[in-house]
Amino acid sequence: MDLMALLLNGAGGAILGPLVSQFLGGKNQSMIMRVISGMIGGVGAGAGADAAGLGSILGDAQMMQMIQSVLEGGLGGGALASLSGMLKKKA
């Protein structure tokens, strides 16, 4: 996995993660915490997808691989930000 894919995963998690978290019930955190957990979840999801061998699902073109990295980061970041928001609500 190259550095550009990790950066795009982190950016996708930081941008799309808080939005997904807002819709899935992670509203109890501040925006800073949602962005940070989104970045961490995005990079983790991208690294996990690479380790699992999920190659280019959207296509072999470079632009499609970049879009896939952003979407992977957004999904992973949204999941982690939602989960941490829900856990804070319980505590």
Short description:
This protein is mainly α. It has 3 helices and no strands.
Number of strands: 0
Helix content: over 70%
Q: What is the alpha-carbon Rg in Å?
A: 13 Å
Poorly predicted parts:
none
Sheet with the most strands, sense and barrel status: none
Task: Count every helix, treating DSSP H or I runs of 4 or more residues as helices.
Answer: 3
How many discrete structural domains?
Answer: 1
Protein structure class? mainly alpha
- Straight-line distance between termini: 37 Å
3D architecture notes:
The chain is mainly alpha-helical and 91 residues long. It has one domain. It is 80% helix and 0% strand. It contains three helices and no strands. It is elongated, with a radius of gyration of 13 Å. The mean pLDDT is 87.
Write the layout of secondary structure elements.
Blueprint: H1 3-24, H2 31-52, H3 62-90
Features of this protein?
mainly alpha, 91 residues, elongated
